[in-house]
Amino acid sequence: MNPAFTRTGAILIAIVLGALLPQAHVFIWLVRWLIMGQLFLVFLQTRMSRSSLRRSHFILLGVNIAMGFFAWQLGKWVGGKDVALAAFFGGITPTASAAPVIMSFLHGQVEYVVASFVLTNVVIAVLMPVLLPLVLGRPTPEAFAQVSGSVGLVVFAPMIAAQLLRLVWPGVTVWPPRLRNVSFGAWVMMMFLVTANASDFIRHQSDVAHHQVLQIAALTAFVSVLNFALGWFIGGKEFHREASQSLGQKNTVFTVYLALMYASPLVALGPTFYVIWHNIWNSWQLYRVDYRGPAAPALSAQRSD
Q: Which of 43, 59, 182, 228 has the greatest count of CB atoms below 10 A from its CB?
């Protein structure tokens, strides 16, 4: 069986089980630590020099940020505040930690996607304390401090810890490839917990309409398609696949956490649905590569560390 379909199937099963087992919401506190563990492993193998950055990386960053506000405005027009916030969290999410892995399977240039991951995740994490209070409608110093603390703990603590450990013990960079299945298992567990939390919320909130859930699903599907398409255009002839993957495949664990912390489980459905859409597209891409075979030597054989 194609590994891509196996991965997508595991995520879909986790989401279905989460919807059927809302009682599991009591373990939602684990999400923060699952995210930090995943990012720690990513940063262990991430090394980026200034020469890795290209002009298109900064265009991708700008479009990534703009997409959050475009989706937010579209969501307000379609379904109101909660739908708008769900769309915002789907659009603003930076490049996924798994995007370089997918690009290696697609025989593309892994270094390009690694650079996008580092740039978008660091910059958007820095900007979130400013951006998030604006869309939440609470532009206060207290909100800025709270978001800064959360982002600092979830993103920068694992990054600093990983870099320090690499300095002390260079051989630690072999951990991430060996623990790839563990990392994916943690991701699936997080999807299960997030969906269980959303299911519990919806069951206990009689004012949550089913059409809102459908609106969130449809909007995030549209944003996902738009991201992959824009990335393909921004990357040009040389990096069309790499830029498409960088903009389209999202680090949803980060924005799911922020949505749960500062909005609601309903809003967290935005990045949760996005996971489904970008994994369906990834499955199709990987199927085509497996079916046709690589068209060229794997330039992407460059290690991401």
A: 43
For residue 200, which of 15, 31, 21, 30 has the smallest C-alpha distance?
21
Nearest to 104 by CA among 4, 188, 20: 4
Give the integer Cα–Cα distance in Å for 145 and 142. Answer: 5
The answer to whether 186 and 34 are in contact (CB under 8 A) is yes
Range list of H helices, 137-209: 141-151, 157-168, 175-178, 180-204
User: What residue ranges do the domains of the chain occupy?
Assistant: 27-291
- DSSP character for 296? S
Residue 91 has a pLDDT of 95
Residue 127: count other Cβ atoms within 10 Å of its Cβ. 14
198 vs 210: CA distance, rounded Å:
13
Average pLDDT per 10 consecutive residues for the chain, totaling 305 residues: 64 84 90 82 71 89 97 93 95 86 79 87 87 81 70 80 89 80 80 82 71 92 97 94 95 84 88 85 76 45 33
The string over 166-194, giving b where at least 16 C-beta atoms fall within 10 Å of a residue's C-beta and e elsewhere, is: beeeeeebebbeebeeebbebbbbbbbbb
Cβ atoms of residues 243 and 63 within 8 Å = no
What pLDDT, on a 0 to 100 scale, did the predictor assign at position 295?
Answer: 43
Alpha-carbon span 281 to 120, nearest angstrom: 21
How many Cβ atoms are within 10 Å of 226's Cβ, its own excluded?
A: 17
pLDDT (0 to 100) of residue 48: 60
Q: How much is the pLDDT for 44?
A: 81
Give the C-alpha separation, 162 to 271, whole Å. 26
Q: Is 250 helix (H, G, I), strand (E, B) or coil?
A: strand
Could you say which DSSP state residue 24 is in?
Answer: G
